Amino acid sequence: MLMAVLASCAPDGSLVLTTVVYTRPPSAQVEPVVERPGFVWVKGRWTYSRDRWVWVPGHLERQRHGYVLESGHWEQRGNAWYWVDGRWVTGTVDTGEGAPTVMRRKVAPSVYPTTAPPPAMVETVSPREGHTWIPGSWDWRDGQWAWSPGYWSRQDPTHRLWVPARWEPQGSYYVKVEGHWE
User: What is the per-residue burial (b if ≥16 Cβ within 10 Å, else e) of 3-16?
Assistant: First the structure.
């Protein structure tokens, strides 16, 4: 499998889907930037669909007063590439009229943790016929550790052994190696 979609729960209770691909995305294509007053240009990007990379062209999006658009991007974590959605953050935009406006925005939470995760939580389960217990693990969300509970997975004859997720130090931060079947 070259791609996975991970589902998780955001702090506000909404569903968050994350695309994970195990092949490096191609370099971005060069495309003309369209300018229009009251709008911002959202850069095109590669997406992975039907076992191949597909280019999604850039587009204009209406400017939101008091906000700045941070572009989405592919981010490498261990041997996987994760899509990080673009988002609007509080700030001001340089309109090109007069002196440049200094960007003011909230400090984004760290993408990578710089401390090891807490010890795993103890999950007590009873054996379940025809299923394998996938243990919970710590995730790094919005700049803090968040526990994702374990779950039962139906046994498949092609799946021999579940290797649990783990966090590995990589320089001054930690990178999650997702759990997988061997």
Answer: beeeeeeeeeeeee
Residues 52 and 122 in one domain: no
Burial class (CB in 10 A: 0-12, 13-18, 19+), 80: middle
For residue 5 the two structure tokens come to 């979609």
DSSP classification of residue 86: -
pLDDT for residue 145 is more than 70? yes
| Three-state secondary structure of 134-164 | ECCEEEEECCEEEEECCEEEECCCCCCCEEC
Tokens 């807490």 correspond to: 118
Evaluate if pTM is beyond 0.70.
Answer: no
Q: Provide the domain count of the chain.
A: 2
